[in-house]
Design brief:
single chain; alpha/beta; Rossmann fold; two-stranded antiparallel ribbon; 11 helices; 35% helix
């Protein structure tokens, strides 16, 4: 496969707007302020830094719509569209063929949203992790089913209004990273588009690591979150600083490293910049207590079972 087969509105192999080697190209269908767009750009930069190409497997989600209409594509790499619940099985096959052929110049990335990760794809995700398949699973978490009308997923936070939770979500968000860490996979980490150096370092770590790797990025959806597109990066920054989205990494399911500790920012600021939370839907005293407890727990894990300096 050649990345030159993926072009947008141009003949195969033709450069597009001077971005011939970009993972995400102009003409994509993503909304303004879409966190996924930034995620893809950062993944692309890390791949360039590592001197690698990618073959992506994407299930039903905003990511598979990103490419635009056939026969053109806004992706600068080969993409295999997969079933909603089966993308890790597809990625297993793509990775196995590459290993059998001894190909070293690319990495397989299974890119999926929270619906295909936390919910519909959980069975095949767990199976691939258990087998330690050789690919990177990257979940961009926009906390809803963004591609099908904004329904709640098990990544939706308490209080959030969606098309299926019109009065606010009542079930706490699933802790997907702890679930994946329990599989004892070689590498698991959370990433932030507001912390580009940390994002790139973790991508490079994942690229260098063999076996199953799980990466999770907080990915605002202005359409579903009822937030301003210009505030996307700032929202993620507030989420990290307040402790609502913890930045950490785990090696072999055992060794922890906290990358950014909360700085005391009030989580209420984060909620106040989105119109998806109805008034009085969130008890901020409870949120502050939960955030503090989670930060203390992670710090203790990193203290008792710290990552090695060379990791």
């Amino acid at each position: 496969m050649s990345t030159k087969t993926a072009t947008h509105g141009a003949a195969a192999g033709a450069p597009v707007c001077g971005v011939e080697n970009s993972l995400l190209r102009p003409g994509n269908t993503n909304c303004g302020g879409c966190g996924l767009s930034i995620v893809l750009s950062m993944i692309g930069r890390a791949l360039d830094r590592a001197g690698k190409q990618t073959r992506m497997v994407i299930p039903a989600c905003c990511g598979i719509v990103t490419a635009g209409g056939y026969p053109t594509s806004s992706y600068g790499s080969p993409v295999l569209g997969a079933t909603f619940g089966g993308s890790p099985a597809f990625a297993t096959g793509v990775a196995a063929v590459g290993d059998l052929n001894g190909e070293q110049d690319y990495v397989v990335i299974n890119l999926a949203g929270d619906g295909g990760t936390y919910d519909i794809g959980m069975a095949t995700l767990s199976a691939a992790a258990e087998r330690n398949e050789n690919f990177i699973y990257f979940c961009y978490d926009n906390e809803i089913y963004g591609n099908t009308g904004g329904q709640r997923s098990s990544a939706t936070p308490v209080g959030a209004k969606t098309t299926t939770t019109p009065y606010g979500e009542t079930v706490p968000k699933k802790d997907i990273l702890s679930i994946m860490v329990a599989h004892r996979i070689p590498y698991a980490a959370t990433l932030s588009i507001a912390h580009p150096e940390d994002f790139e370092r973790k991508m490079l770590t994942a690229i260098r690591t063999r076996g199953f790797r799980f990466l999770l990025a907080h990915s605002p959806c202005p359409t579903g979150w009822k937030s301003e597109p210009s505030q996307t990066v700032q929202l993620v920054r507030i989420a990290v600083n307040s402790g609502l989205f913890a930045l950490y990494e785990v090696f072999d399911g055992r060794r922890y490293r906290v990358n950014v500790s909360p700085d005391g920012s009030d989580p209420e600021t984060y909620y106040g910049q989105q119109r998806r939370f109805p008034r009085d839907a969130v008890d901020f005293q409870v949120v502050r207590a939960e955030v503090g407890n989670a930060a203390t727990r992670l710090a203790k894990l990193a203290e008792i079972w710290p990552a090695r300096d060379d990791e």
